[in-house]
Each structure stands twice: as structure tokens, then as C-alpha cells.
Amino acid sequence: MAKIEIYTQMGCGYCVRAVRLLQSKNVPFEQIDVSLNSALRGEMAKRAGGRNTSPQIFVDDAHIGDSDEIFALDRAGHLDKLLKLGS
Which CATH number fits domain 4-82: 3.40.120.10, 3.40.50.300, 3.90.1150.10, 3.40.30.10? Predict the structure, then answer.
């Protein structure tokens, strides 16, 4: 399975949606809360090419994007392959 990391923050509805999508796929993932940690927020932005909104999602260290992008991948039928499900 792929290594999945999702940077989130408290009170973020988009973060909740993205986390629920990953949970529905029954894949392990690391949730990194940047709410109260400016160093982690800076790390997220650096890894995400300057994007500092939450969530930001990474699969095997590759930046996937935010909530819109992960849902678009799922709708297009590409997310399961990216997450290495069923392989």
C-alpha cells in the first residue's frame, strides 16, 4: 500500500471530507494537524509548492493536492490505483 499523509487543521470542513474519503477506502494514513504548529504549516506549504490551504495530501511523497483534487481523482476512477488498492 501507498504511504499517505494528509495535512489538516481544526474546523476545516474540506479536511473532514478528505479524511472521510480516505477512511472509506480503508487505507492507513498519517494525519498531520497544522492548526497550532507554524513549523508544520511551513513544512506543508514547502512540500505543496507554496500552497498553504488545508488539506494538502501526499501519496508516496508526491503532492496530490487538496480536497477538490482527491475527490476528482476518485470520481475519475484513479484514486484506488494511486493508493495501490487491490494490488
Answer: 3.40.30.10
